[in-house]
Amino acid sequence: MQTRFLVPGALKRVTWQHTTRRVQQRSIHVDCLEKGTNGEQTKYQAALFIDNVFPLKMSRLDIRPYLVLRNSGAMRKKVQGLLPELPHGASISDIDPHFRDGGSLVHFTFEAGSGLEAARDKAQGVVDAVNTHVQAHSKQRWLGLATRALAVRGVPFCEDIVRMLPSKRVRVEFCGPALGVEQVYGEFRPYGRILDIEMPNDAARWAVVHYTRLRGATSARNCVHGDVVGTTKLLLAYVRENREHVAVQWIKDHSKFMIPLAAAALIAAIYAVFDPIREFCVENKITHRFDLSHVPLLGDVRRAAMRSLLRRDSAPQQDMSAWSGLTDQGSRLASILDEPPESFVVVSGPHGSGKTRVVEQATAGKKYCIVVDARKLAAEHSDLEQMTQLARQLGWWPVFNSIISITNAVDMMVKATTGSNAGISATPESQVRRILETLALALANIRQRRLQLQAREREHEGRSFSESVHTVPSADIPVIVLDNFMDKSIAFTPVILDWAASVVEAGLAHCVITTSSISGYHEVQRAQPQSPASLVSLADASPIEAISLLQHQLAPPNLLQQTTPDSSSVESAESYAQRLDTASSDSIANAAQVLGGRLEDLQLFVQKVRAGESVDAALEDIVQRSITEVRKYAFADDSEVGQCEHTWSPEQFWFLLTELAQHNDVEYDR
Question: Cα–Cα distances in Å, from 575 out to 143, 555, 564, 570, 581?
């Protein structure tokens, strides 16, 4: 067990005066250089240490000593200027600057009688005279401390070890009988106030002297190292301190709440840096401001290059004019979007009934359109992947999925240590809310800039203020399209609906939802109960409309008008016309009757015929595909198709198919 001694202040003052006088009278180290003969005096050499001449070297990266003096010659000149003319005929023999310890050793020679005590008295007189002079005439003070001249009582250890930096703690090794605490205190107190003396026990072979100031430790090491007290030689070395900052130590001691606080600060800093970038990326996704594919010239060149690389012509425009139902509903949807946003717009209809086509035609004249494909979201396997897919569709970048794992891990650690949650954990749902908030902020910025542009135009034209200045033209109102929404289960459906309702109520954008679900309209209505949603219902085409659509799409003049004037295109157009001539209107009517009025099937049939297949072959291929799909989803096991458990039996489904084959309508109760 170590013994620690704290010396009271009053005792320190008394001991200081007594010990200083006793040490100065006996302990300066004197070497005999030339012994006098025939009554001549003997030549001696002694040394003194002048401290507080240079700045202390606190660490390996401390450059202050190099900024003050650049070489040892300049250091010697500086020390030489501090010294007076030495008394008793003494002369300076060498100056050894110790820039790391902030001082310098000064070796001087003098002559004295043959007695060693007389030589020590004369050497001490030289040190006292130098000390009095430097304290009276020294102008440079580092850290407010006066320069001192101290007698060297031992043999200094002159070294340049890089890692042996000055420290307030000095380790003293006893080469001989151990010294007591009082003796250690008497030897080291003249160089500065002592904070503590550490000794394992009274018979210890070492002790650690802890000074209150670094100058006391450096002076003691240069003056006491090698001193002999009785029969014990003292060897000194700096104790390497752990230079840890007080703030760092305080953080370590209070890690229970500093860890979550630091994690929260880090996350807040990340959000503060990257949120403006994400807002810029989302806004660019809406406006296509920096999208080169939307530049007129570059976009055309890019599309032409892609067509030439893929060696295919551009897809023909699908004219829906023969389908009166789609045309009417598309016009109705376009008229709704021309008005200020008030409620949701739900485009409902069976799968393949043309919902996407109607929305594309209605939003063709809109400047800003954001499409969220819910089918791609539902294809992802986890909530985190769905969140990443949503961010990709909206242009929310960069996405740090690891932050969710890090915050959850930190929250678990804090809960394990403190027993309570830190409240910094993140979830995919919270990230989705942040993505949607960023999108809402981008929409608000777009609206604000448009209003400011209108105000400047009115001011430039000199028109007076009116209420219409707060309205945005219908073409500049953004449209948010939630495509294939609620067709399959998505974890964030309530979050997206609540956000869309708030955006519509604020008048920032229209929200169009396309769904094949029968209950989709009612779920949307629950998200915004105060305003009834506008419903655009689509149904399958009638037999007459289906036949008219096929005849219109498969007419040879359409292809002839779209082909290029080269010979190969003309030949393909002529062969296509001959092939259609062989197909009578009866075969097309028969195909329309088999396919029904589903737009997706009709379009697939048109594409196959245009690709070179005959009418019968194209029809047979579509029928076989439909049979395969029915067998897969109706009669296969749930594990094979990855679907939920069926609510019907194969027998019930087969009965339904046979009934539909015989009758156009089947009652549900049957």
Answer: 101, 13, 15, 9, 10
CA distance 381 to 491: 11
Structure confidence by residue, pLDDT tens digits, 181-216: 999 999 999 999 999 999 988 778 899 999 999 999
Whose structure tokens read 């007290």? Answer: 229
Residue type, 247: A
State the pLDDT at residue 569.
47
- Alpha-carbon distances, residue 635 vs 621, 630, 652, 670 (angstroms): 21, 7, 11, 21
The model's pLDDT over 573-590, given as tens digits with 9 standing for 90+, comes to: 555 555 555 556 788 888
Assign 448 to helix, strand or coil. Answer: helix
3-state DSSP assignment of residue 258: helix
With CA atoms as reference, report the closest residue to 355 among 553, 626, 537, 605. Answer: 537
- pTM (predicted TM-score): 0.61
Q: What average pLDDT does the chain have?
A: 81
- Please, which pLDDT band fits residue 388 given cuts at 50, 70 and 90? very high
Provide long-range contacts, Cβ within 8 A and 24+ apart, for 622-629. Answer: 622/595, 623/594
3 state DSSP class of 306: helix
Average pLDDT over residues 239-246: 71
Please answer whether residues 50 and 103 qualify as being in contact, where contact means their C-beta atoms are separated by less than 8 angstroms: yes
Residue 558 · residue 346 · CB < 8 Å: no
How many other β-carbons are positioned within 10 Å of the β-carbon of residue 434? 17
Longest alpha-carbon distance in the chain: 150
| CA-CA-CA-CA dihedral for 411, 413, 415, 417, to nearest 10 | -150
Q: What is the pLDDT of residues 520-541, one digit of tens each?
A: 888 899 998 888 999 999 888 8
Consecutive H or E run containing 554: none
Q: What gap in Å lies between CA 97 and CA 50, rounded to an integer?
A: 9
- For every residue of 506-551, DSSP letters joined together read TTS-EEEEEE--TTHHHHHHHHSTTSPPEEEE--PPPHHHHHHHHH
Write down the H helix ranges in 91-163. 116-137
- Check residue 12 and give its pLDDT: 42
Phi/psi at 195 (nearest 5 deg)?
-80, -40
Which 3 state secondary structure label does DSSP give 105? strand
Identify which of 426, 437, 429 has the alpha carbon closest to the alpha carbon of residue 267: 426
Residue 407 in tokens: 């915050």
Q: How far apart are CA 426 and CA 420, in angstroms?
A: 16
Cis ω on the peptide bond leading into residue 8 (within 30° of 0)? no
> If phi over 0 gives left and psi between -120 and 50 gives alpha, with beta otherwise, what is residue 64?
alpha
The CA-atom distances, in angstroms, between 349 and each of 151, 515, 599, 644 are 103, 7, 11, 23
